[in-house]
């Protein structure tokens, strides 16, 4: 049985990363591959290695036949150069040990440091590296250095397709917070636009305190509350509008064809451009997001079918690739 090491920002409770992880893992197990993972020490799973122990990481790589980076934007240094080096070294060591590496549904960059760009280009040139980009900008860049590059979609789509539609709650909006400490203009605008129910839906445990604090603000005729991370998808499916600082908050809204505003997330703009080139729901700040509410409210999105077709083709391509790497 072929053993595959699945690498990503897993085990920290981030909803988007866990959706990708579960989706890819289910697919690999269904194809009868043994899946091993790098996870935080406190997370106990079968066939898991500690991601913070160098010996454990080396054992995981050496005992695997293929390494898959399962979605997301781990190769960038905007948030952390240390994080970039962590993942770079995992993939570099894997390739050095002649293990094929597959980037499956990733976006790449931005790179603020010259060294990061040099190291990334070096990685791309390896003949044992295969790349499934989830956006056109990333694809065009990596294609210049690696001819085994393809463009598809986000790996989380199959697991979302298992979710059932839920009845819409009239005049309900969901906000997925991350960094902005005040949503007062947005709440006032939502009330002015006729919304009566707003839920702050965190996508990570680290965002829960912020969601709780933001939900304490009161607006006349507007019920403001928060939910737990595990309930966030359900609230998005029920809503008539989503405002998200998280990539997968906007993606889930788009998948369930709920109008959305993506806040300060260029990666999602790059991703969604493939599905709707003229979409107007992007904002760089709270004031702009408030202005955009009337622009996107009531828009009819029709992207779910295309997302599912792209995901089906993407996973079929992965299946054939792994088979050919035997």
TrEMBL record:
It comes from the Bacteria. One of its GO terms (molecular function) is transferase activity. Keywords: Transferase. InterPro entries: Polysacch_pyruvyl_Trfase. The keyword Transferase applies. Signal peptide: none annotated. This is Polysaccharide pyruvyl transferase CsaB.
């Amino acid at each position: 049985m072929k053993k595959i090491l699945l690498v990503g920002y897993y085990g920290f409770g981030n909803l988007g990363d866990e959706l990708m992880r579960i989706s890819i893992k289910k697919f690999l197990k269904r194809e009868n591959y043994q899946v091993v993972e790098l996870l935080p020490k406190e997370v106990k799973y079968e066939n898991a290695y500690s991601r913070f122990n160098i010996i454990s990481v080396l054992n995981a790589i050496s005992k695997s036949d293929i390494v898959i980076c399962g979605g997301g934007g781990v190769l960038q240094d905007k948030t952390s150069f240390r994080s970039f080096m962590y993942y770079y070294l995992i993939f570099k060591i894997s390739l050095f040990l002649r293990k094929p590496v597959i980037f499956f549904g990733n976006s790449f960059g931005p790179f603020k440091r010259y060294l990061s760009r040099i190291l990334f280009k070096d990685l791309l040139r390896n003949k044992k590296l295969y790349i499934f980009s989830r956006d056109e900008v990333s694809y065009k860049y990596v294609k210049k250095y690696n001819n085994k590059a393809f463009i598809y979609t986000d790996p989380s789509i199959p697991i979302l397709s298992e979710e059932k539609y839920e009845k819409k709650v009239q005049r309900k909006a969901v906000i997925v917070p991350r960094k902005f400490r005040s949503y007062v203009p947005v709440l006032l605008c939502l009330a002015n636009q006729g919304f009566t129910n707003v839920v702050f839906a965190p996508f990570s445990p680290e965002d829960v305190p912020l969601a709780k604090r933001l939900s304490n603000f009161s607006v006349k005729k507007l019920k403001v509350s928060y939910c737990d991370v595990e309930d966030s998808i359900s609230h998005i499916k029920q809503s008539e509008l989503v405002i998200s600082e998280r990539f997968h908050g906007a993606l889930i809204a788009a998948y369930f064809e709920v109008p959305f505003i993506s806040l300060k997330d260029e990666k999602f703009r790059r991703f969604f451009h493939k599905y709707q080139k003229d979409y107007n729901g992007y904002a760089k700040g709270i004031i702009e997001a408030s202005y955009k509410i009337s622009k996107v409210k009531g828009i009819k999105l029709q992207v779910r079918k295309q997302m599912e077709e792209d995901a089906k083709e993407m996973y079929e391509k992965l299946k054939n690739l792994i088979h050919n790497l035997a």
